[in-house]
Specification:
heterodimer, A: mainly beta, Immunoglobulin-like, 9-stranded antiparallel sheet, 1 helix, B: mainly beta, 13% helix, 45% strand
């Protein structure tokens, strides 16, 4: 009797288990690109006697994001961002902004500059597989008060399946 | 009954863990900003200094000119401004320069005699951008110099460690 119940439960749960796997397909994010900016005397606002320009902006498609592995056009997801500093100066503030929709599913939000902090925050959302979502990068806070050095931070993009 | 509970618990746990494992993925990119050394100085002004009078019984009267300024930007620490002339001054003629310290940083060395070797005129400059420090020149001579024809000197200012 007990054996029969066990078999019954296994057959009852198995479809649920596999259905769950389909709903939560292996959604994947691929970020392509990086940004290296040299800041030197040519960036002084008015030459000697003046400060550096404080903001620097990358080209529109400095970074491209692909979302794949969704279970279909209605499989919704969200992208969170945060930074992990390598050698960084806290006067510097990195920003990201989505500048294209890419091709495939749909995306929304993220079309104004958003500061990247050490804490995960929502960037934009969408659904389905999407390729070629362009992102523009920005840096503010540059000045001659910052010691000469190479400052680097890693931007983490986490795609969360919210279906 | 225990087997049933175990199966239910295992299945529920598997569903949760599976969902969590497949529900997120991470990718990264790097942002790098290379702040290079900036040590810029620019001088304006073409001062003229003429010694043409003296009080009887005294040496010729020295002349000063404060019509020049320098603009300086540095993102470094403990920098200095040095000054030198391209050729030596005639015998018994002395040219001195006094460069004011940039606003909020550095120490002026006061009047410094210019030679063909670089001399410190401002020291201890850090993280500064100032376009207005005044440069004052002082020309003096003794009677031993005699009459000296008009001549020019190029003064070179440098920001360095």
């Amino acid at each position: 009797m007990r054996f029969s119940i066990t078999i019954f439960i296994i057959f009852l749960l198995a479809p649920l288990f596999f259905a769950s796997q389909m709903a939560h397909a292996a959604i994947s994010i691929t970020v392509t690109g990086s940004w290296v900016e040299t800041i030197d005397k040519n960036d002084l606002l008015f030459g000697a006697g003046s400060d550096l320009q404080s903001a620097y902006t990358s080209v529109s498609g400095q970074v491209s994001i692909d979302i794949s592995g969704t279970s279909g056009a209605s499989d919704a997801w969200r992208i969170d961002i945060r930074k992990v500093d390598d050698n960084w100066n806290n006067n510097l503030h990195p920003y990201v902004m989505r500048t294209s929709d890419g091709t495939g599913g749909s995306v929304s939000g993220g079309t104004s500059y958003q500061e990247v902090t050490d804490i995960n925050t929502s960037f934009f959302s969408g659904s389905g597989d999407v390729t070629g979502i362009n992102v523009q990068l920005r840096l503010t806070g540059a000045s001659i008060q910052i010691n000469p050095s190479s400052y680097s931070t890693v931007i983490y993009y986490t795609v969360v399946d919210i279906q | 009954m225990k087997t049933l509970k175990f199966l239910l618990l295992t299945a529920a746990l598997a569903l949760v863990l599976r969902g969590a494992a497949l529900g997120a993925d991470v990718s990264t990119h790097v942002m790098t900003f290379d702040f290079q050394d900036i040590n810029e100085i620019e001088v304006t002004g073409t001062p003229n200094l003429t010694i043409a009078s003296a009080i009887a019984g005294e040496q010729p009267q020295e002349i000063t000119d404060n019509s020049s300024t320098c603009a300086i930007t540095t993102n470094g620490i403990n920098k200095k401004i040095t000054a030198k002339i391209d050729t030596a001054m005639p015998a018994y003629v002395t040219l001195k320069v006094n460069v004011a310290a940039p606003s909020g940083s550095g120490t002026s060395q006061g009047y410094v005699t210019l030679t063909t070797l670089a001399s410190n005129v401002v020291t201890g400059i850090s993280h500064v951008a100032d376009s207005s420090p005044t440069i004052t020149y002082k020309l003096s001579a003794t009677v031993q110099a005699g009459v000296v024809s008009t001549d020019t000197r190029t003064v070179t200012f440098t920001v360095s460690d």
